[in-house]
Amino acid sequence: MPKILLITTGGTIASRCGEHGLRPVLMGEELRTAMGAEWDEIEIRDYLSLDSCNIIPAYWEEFAREIDDLRTDYDGFIVTHGTDTMAYTSAALYYMLENLDRPVVLTGSQRPLGVSGSDAEDNLRLAHRVALSGRPGVVLAFGGRVIRGNAAKKLYTVRDDAFRSIGAPDISIDGDTADVQAAPAAPFHLRDVLDERVAVIKLYPGIPPDIVHVYVNAGYRGLIIEGFGSGGVPLINEQSLLPALAHAHDCGRTVVLTTQCVYDGADITRYEVGVRAAELGVLSGGTLPVEALYPLLMLRLTETPEGERVKSLT
After folding, report:
1. Which CATH architecture describes the domain 198-303?
2. Which residues are part of a known binding site?
3. What is the tens place of the pLDDT at every residue in 201-227?
4. Residue positions forming the annotated binding site for substrate
5. What is the pLDDT of residues 54-72, one digit of tens each?
6. Which residues bind substrate (predicted)?
7. Residue 258 among the catalytic residues
8. How far lies 145's CA from each of 72, 171, 208, 265, in Å?
9. CATH number of 3-190: 3.40.50.1170, 3.30.420.40, 1.10.260.40, 2.60.40.10?
10. Which of 8, 12, 107, 259 is catalytic?
11. Among residues 8, 9, 83, 85, which one is catalytic?
């Protein structure tokens, strides 16, 4: 019988109403029962009990090391997690658990387990099926969808099918339509150190370019700029971002330009407002959502000597 490890971190799925609203209190025993699985099939590791707003990159490093330590003891892993930052965590683990040879499945719910109309039980059972599928890699299972770990984005605050896959198709694990992924050819590699000196800047009309200088002068090594349209920045008069981007380049900072649009990704080779930024060494975020770009840039910076810029995200 396959062995699955359930790692709990809190979130809505484990919450009950307290003095100040919902907060995580349930443990793995309740979640395991809701899966309807054999008790000797799923073991439990109650790791955290946090709202996912409180999950920070240091926890991603801990999760990755925990899975690495136990990887060969289990056939698959289920991580229950709050929905608000689940896409960030799934992307971080996708990159940190390189060439993973078994399933790691993140799931949660929009309403707590056990309340009327909760989606928790369905999501837990879906995650259990994926964990038993043998399909290697990190995925997010939620609302009837299975999404590659670095492609997930939460689009709805309350709908059961809150997540969508950005830049990649959903994954199927059913019968003849199963999305079969071969075991990785390269050996597993844990990448468990992140450089947290990365900031995300969302542009808005009239944003002062000095905001870039603020982060550069504060010592941030990487900036992800959510630009307009296909990845554009202001170019004219005192609103031009180009001098600030040139300053970041000269200081050895890595700048990634992406889009505020949900679908179709960034293309900074098309319009002057993107091309001029690319000429200053700015990298394109491509079709990756910002939830994936953020941990990916953190990892790339750990591989890049201090004072040098990341040459490529791929």
Report:
1. 3-Layer(aba) Sandwich (3.40)
2. 52, 83-84
3. 999 999 999 999 999 999 999 999 999
4. 52, 83-84
5. 999 999 999 999 999 999 9
6. 52, 83-84
7. no
8. 27, 7, 40, 21
9. 3.40.50.1170
10. 12
11. 83
